[in-house]
Design a protein that fits this description.
Number of helices: 6
Distance between the termini: 60 Å
Strand content: under 5%
Shape: globular
Largest sheet: none
Structural class: mainly alpha
Radius of gyration: 18 Å
Order of helices and strands: HHHHHH
Length: 92
Amino acid sequence: MPAPTCPEAASKPRSTARLRSRSVHPDHWHTAKAALAFAGHWVSGGKWLLRELRELDPGLATRWLAARDDPAPIAAEVLARSGGPLFDGYRA
């Protein structure tokens, strides 16, 4: 049996933030978390992820939001800030 619905709630538009979060590339979230971790910031989730990223670097946060569908360029930027990517078999 379907859950009862409130007529007022049914007439309101759904949150676009919730809809957008479902369609974001998974690496997008990992990029933001890596940026925070590499900078020694608290790694958060949900709505706090963007808040912490904005506190760390507002410009990076803006670019991160714009790179929602293709996180590769912003991921490369985050990795470059921390010394670049490491590949399988890397030996220091």
